[in-house]
Design goal:
Length: 419
């Protein structure tokens, strides 16, 4: 366009020159516009060459690919459950005569929690006890007699007395067992809920009186994706938090991994035990769980904002000297601090473009500028090779700039003279 404009202006100048001069002095003046035309073309050629040589240098910030010890984890939501729990009830129907604990009390295994009115049962037990004692006394007398007089009593009669003792003993033990139906004892250490009945209430057999929970340890139950089925193992560590205690972490261990995927949810059930000596964790609490599949795995990290998506492809721009080179990468999960895990395509120390990549094309020339938020430790020695390309202009480049200015000035003079 500049060439066409200058050519037009030169032709105009020639026409003006020819118009304002007589025929007799045509030859001397004819060479002036021709000379001016050639000079203008040379100036424009210089300007065009400089413009062609001009390369846009894109300023970018970079960060080095770093290696860090990485924990492979999964986060889920679950519920706290008691490992052991029991609904406590009597095995007989009668009035409640005693409750030895209050709502929410802690109890030890074997302690009597409540009793029924056992007057009738105790009378039956006493009667059975007396019957047993009498049967034993009769047998002892006969046995003493037989020592003195071996044939004083027929063997059949002696056997009958011995059978009476056995029957009386069985009846006595049965009556003792009935007495236990009138008691509720703690089957394990734990904490009671509230009682459903009070002293004096008539209660039926198998009617729940109170529930006992074992709260040390407790269990957290949750489910993970079936994609992680092969990662979950018994013995893996879990960290658990609940809203009641803010950021306080309770540590536990996986003690159960379901052997099959649940048909309804498509997930895998997991149980983990948690120490709970102070009974802070209560059954029914919602819990946030972090399960550690593995710890300390070396992984490469790059800033998430350095990754560019092109359909299914993911790539970054690598710094190679003063050029940006496209590098396709394979990613794993993102971290919570703005980085992504790279499992293929990069090496420790590679410099990736962090900002400015929106203007980059393949093999673009770049200028690395220091990011104020980027620590020196995040850069690696080969940043110097990139920095060298950002040095002050050389003499040749300055000369080029000077030629560019000269060409521009010449072009302006063409216009002015044409006017």
């Amino acid at each position: 366009m500049l060439t066409q404009l200058a050519t037009t202006q030169v032709r105009t100048a020639c026409d003006i020159s020819l118009t304002h001069h007589s025929h007799q002095d045509l030859k001397p003046t004819l060479f002036a516009p021709v000379t001016f035309f050639i000079t203008s073309l040379l100036a424009l050629s210089s300007l065009t060459a400089v413009a062609a040589d001009k390369v846009d240098i894109i300023p970018v910030t970079v960060e080095a690919v770093k290696e860090t010890a990485f924990d492979d984890t999964v986060k889920e939501v679950g519920k706290i459950n008691a490992i052991d729990s029991a609904v406590l009830n009597f095995s007989a129907s009668e009035k409640i005569s005693a409750i030895h604990f209050n709502h929410g009390d802690k109890v030890k295994k074997g302690q009597i929690i409540a009793e029924l009115d056992n007057v009738k049962a105790k009378a039956d037990l006493d009667k059975a006890k007396s019957t047993l004692a009498l049967a034993k006394t009769k047998l002892e007398r006969i046995e003493d007699l037989l020592i003195k007089e071996p044939f004083a009593l027929a063997k059949q009669d002696v056997d009958e007395l011995r059978e009476n003792v056995n029957l009386a003993d069985a009846d006595f033990r049965q009556k003792q067992a009935v007495m236990n139906d009138y008691l509720i004892k703690a089957p394990f250490d734990g904490q009671l809920t509230s009682f459903s009945q009070s002293i004096g209430s008539q209660i039926g057999a198998a009617t729940a009186l109170v529930t006992l929970y074992s709260l040390h340890p407790v269990e957290v139950r949750y489910a993970i994706s079936q994609h992680d089925f092969g990662k979950a193992k018994k013995g893996q560590e879990v960290d658990v938090t609940v809203e009641a205690y803010g950021d306080k972490t309770f540590t536990g261990v996986v003690n159960y991994v379901a052997p099959a995927v649940d048909n309804n949810s498509g997930r895998v059930d997991i149980h983990a035990t948690l120490e709970n000596p102070e009974f802070k964790l209560a059954p029914g609490m919602f819990a946030n769980i972090k399960q550690y599949y593995s710890r300390g795995i070396k992984r490469l990290l790059v800033p998430q904002n350095s990754i560019i998506a092109n359909n299914a492809e993911r790539f970054v721009w690598l710094v190679r000297g003063d050029r940006a080179v496209k590098q396709v990468v394979k990613l794993a999960q993102n971290t919570n601090d703005g980085y992504a895990v790279v499992i293929e395509g990069l090496a420790v120390g590679d410099l990736v473009v962090k900002t400015g990549m929106q203007n980059i094309k393949s093999d673009s020339q770049i200028k690395v500028v220091q990011d104020k938020n980027l620590k020196d430790s995040q850069l690696v020695p080969n940043i110097e090779s990139a920095a060298e390309s950002t040095a002050e202009p050389t003499a040749d480049s300055k000369a080029g700039s000077h030629s560019k200015s000269t060409a521009a000035a010449n072009a302006n003079s063409v216009t002015e003279e044409a006017e």
